[in-house]
Amino acid sequence: MTVIPILRFQSLIMETNFTNSNAVSVWNSKLSKILIPNIIVLSLYIFLGIIGNTTVIIVYRFRMRKKSEDRYFIPILAVSDLAGATVCGSFGIALNMMQTEFTSTRLCKAWWFFAAFTQYMSVLLLLIIATQRYLKVCKPQRHQMKQFHKRLAVGLSFGVAFVSAAPITALYGSVDFPNSDGSIIGTRCSKLKEVNKTLTLLYGIVIIIMLLTSMTIMIFFYIRIGHKVYVHFKNKNNSFSSGKEQTSSNIDTEMHTITSVISCGDGPATEHKESNPEIEKYEPEGITPKTKSKVKNSTGSADINKRLVHKFTIMFMMITILFLISYIPKVILIVIEGLNPYFWQNFSDNERPGILFIYRMYIVNNIVNPFIYAFMDLDFRKETRQLLTFKSIASVWK
Is the pLDDT confidence value at 296 over 70? Predict the structure, then answer.
């Protein structure tokens, strides 16, 4: 006699679960449709990130005939950006499509870890690049970063990024996500509510301090670098305007200055022998043809070398500025999210797409660099054009 009520109770539970599951699916489908514009943007991020950074890796790593230390970090940064655009973009799409049906805790933890790791790696690489440019431009007489130091710095950044991202696996997972009136409860990949709040807050503080410290150091370095470059070109213009008044009595001093400038560059001045129409030229009076030729060649080589150093410095400065613009909104939202555990539940379905777009705008940092290289580095632009020619493409398939 007791079997029938039990069966009815089990049937009622199954029917309730089915009804709730169906309601969650309908709710998830509704949210996913609202987020379609965001999904399209993320898909564009992935496409541009893969195409652009893959091109950078191929060109700088395999096609550049001239190896310059100024370009050392570019392929490494491109690998990090490629991973960041792919992982973070695909993770964002998955979250958009499974707003209320993200049930795999392991997948959630793994995705959060790799997303955090790639972003921390990019930040640390930009910090290393800023440090290297600061030493090269502002402290040329001090010890510079050699090949060993650069490899060590990249290895340390990899280790620090890994250690910094590891705790995130204990903080995130699949959590209950109720709708506005609490009638439907889904699951989403988000911060776990049962985790010790003190540890969560401590981790958030450490990460925020690390990001803000890195940003502050980069801003400080590039302000100093920018001032140094400005003073250099200002003095350069002044020296050219008075260059016609030079006589042979100051040739020795000029040659000494030229030698000093060359020694602060990438290496031997003869590394950059190509002509540069942008370089102003003048001819001091009272010099023999032989001495004039020697000074002219040395001045041209030193000037080209110095200009290349400053050009790459400005290029990396632009990369860092765009990084700051794209990352600051993310940092602000991370702080607000840490202070308010119900941050994401307080938004309506129509407000969520805009917040998510701002939250994921940091991915722009992973896709914009190839466009800066194409704009600033003439050798990269030339090699990319040759890479995309019909003969070059046909040779790959042979």
Answer: no
Q: Which residues on neighbouring strands pair with residue 188, listed in sequence order?
A: 175
Per-residue pLDDT, 89: 93
* Over residues 316-328, mean pLDDT: 84
Instruction: Map out the domains of the chain with their CATH numbers.
Output: 35-396 (1.20.1070.10)
pLDDT band at 310 (very low <50, low <70, confident <90, very high): low
pTM comes to 0.72
